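User: quick one, fold this
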Amino acid sequence: MIIRDLSTASAEDLEVSTLIQTLHDAGKRLEELTEGEVDAVADAGGRTFLLRSAQDQLRIFEASKQAAVLNALPANIALVDALGVIVSVNDAWRSFVDTRVRHAPGHAIGINYLAICDSAIGDGSTESHAAAAALRAVLCGGSESVLVEYRCDSQAQERWFRMYVSPLAQDRASGAVVMHLDVTARVLVAAALDRQRAELRVLVDLMPAMIWFKDIHNRILRVNQRVADAAGKSLAEIEGKPSAEIYPEDAARNYSDDLDVIRSGESKLEIVEPRQFPDGSMHWVQTDKVPFFGPQGDVAGIVVMERDVTAQREADTDRHREGVRLPNLGRRPRPEAPGSR
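Assistant:
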């Protein structure tokens, strides 16, 4: 709002002052003639004049409507003027200030938001300075809207907020809307998922097998380090790629076998077959294929685990041969004692 000071009046200012007085007198006389029972009057030409009492009611209605909208939003919201001074806040802002700030008269209304952020020192000062820069960028017209995510812990817990700043009007002279949304739950869930992924990566890498996670379209979602080492590639070069790109000679045959698991939803275990390794040596390999399921209960992909069982198979073969050649070393079986069965 721009208010014009008429105390030092020019000729033009005097005319404006006269018109204001005329409007005031006209409105007062119209209310007297209508005995306060109507909100607006119209002349024969269809020109309408809204009476002052109706204008006041309309302003009150518009203000209450705006307040209801702001209070319904689950974010801490403040409206600031073109200089960054807080002129209005919603209920969520008031509640936040009541629980976090001991001395904030009027819930910070009338305080310069930019000055608060600029003066911050110590923990959180970097985020406060970023918030001030974001607000300035909007107020000066350098940006249409700005988003800043920052940490602001309470005494009881870790808390994260996302700050949105957008202009109140296109001309920027009206100020800006500053909205802080509590995103703690989302940030903590994301952090927990990151930890789980890291832990899963460690466990999968430690397993004595090569492991692939593949979707139903034969795309490689994730592998362990043993797979990357065997392929001579990095994890980034394998994950997210179609199997045919990484294993052009074997992808079609392996996928045909995968489809049995995908269609049936049942595992295929202990598939033992000979395999020639890149160095030309022959090995026995055991493969297990297990489905994993999506949120709706349908098969989302499979986990393939493959390990070299050559040494175990050769040991089993040697034991079998020894058993056939020397069944009992020529000894007679001892007679069983009565009641031993």
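User: anything notable?
Assistant: Residues 11-33 form the longest helix (23 residues).
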